[in-house]
Design brief:
272 residues, alpha/beta, Rossmann fold
């Protein structure tokens, strides 16, 4: 487990590596991937998840379902760094025969599910959580979902099911960057008050700054607190395209690319 300074340094490294991947594979969704970097760092370097890179499907692992698959390219450098696959793969994303694609799937060690179609992560994770509960397993199930993804009705079917089944071993983390594909969520379909909606279906709800590792870690750790009776949602308020001037604050940043020359400049400036 890393200390606070090490976690912050690792999050900055993930930010840089994510941009480098985008420079090599422009089909990747960079804005969505930058908003969840600290969430992923907290889970994998903060001592929250149980996992074994040498045995990705180890039965005793905690399950981590990435529902917003297109927006999880920042997970690639973490998996490589931890030994799930050869770091050399980070140099050839999207190429024919490469392990890493613009949209990930379960052939990448560390990914649990198919991630190309949005709106299914909570339902799939609820099924996993129910199965683990039936087996009296101590493993937990975590989900990373986008807020715009919550427009999908299947997500709320999963929320209702998990609340009814009192799946206390399930935690959903909403990457609440408040933007969907084509605009701000408030202009398309306002989700607020998001926490109250989950609570109405029998969940506990917490809200934190999704870029503050000091706030994220305690919230994530509470998901594994003994004695919890309900599933937990953590609403992590984030910034889409964080740290990239022509992405932050742009309603259409979801579909924007960052040119390789601009990536190189951003990485140099951040490394100073």
């Amino acid at each position: 487990m890393m200390n606070a300074t090490e976690l912050e340094s690792k999050a900055r490294w993930v930010w840089r590596e994510t941009l480098k991947l985008h420079a090599l594979c422009q089909e990747t969704r960079i804005a969505s991937s930058l908003s969840c970097a600290e969430i992923l760092v907290a889970l994998y370097y903060g001592g929250v998840l149980r996992f074994d890179p040498k045995e990705p499907l180890w039965e005793g692992r905690d399950r981590f379902v990435i529902s917003k698959g297109h927006g999880s390219i920042s997970f690639y450098p973490i998996l490589a760094d931890l030994g799930f696959f050869d770091p050399a793969e980070l140099q050839r994303p999207g190429l024919p025969g490469a392990l890493l694609k613009a949209i990930p799937d379960p052939h990448i060690p560390g990914y649990e599910t198919v991630n190309g179609s949005l709106g299914h992560g909570i339902g799939v994770a609820a099924g996993m959580a129910l199965g683990l509960k039936a087996k009296k397993s101590g493993s937990a199930v975590f989900v990373l979902a986008g807020d715009g993804e919550l427009y999908e009705g299947a997500m709320w079917e999963g929320v209702m099911f998990a609340g009814h089944q009192r799946l206390s071993n399930l935690c959903v983390i909403v990457d609440n960057n408040r933007q969907c594909m084509l605009d701000y969520c408030r202009n398309v379909l306002d989700l607020s008050p998001l926490g109250a909606k989950f609570e109405a279906f029998g969940w506990e709800a917490l809200e934190v700054d999704g870029h503050d590792l000091g706030a994220l870690l305690p919230a994530l750790e509470s998901a594994k607190r003994l004695g919890r009776k309900k599933p937990l949602v953590i609403i992590a308020n984030t910034i889409k395209g964080r740290g990239v001037p022509n992405l932050e604050g742009q309603p259409l940043c979801h579909i924007f690319n960052v040119k390789a020359d601009d990536v190189a400049k951003l990485v140099r400036e951040e490394s100073r």
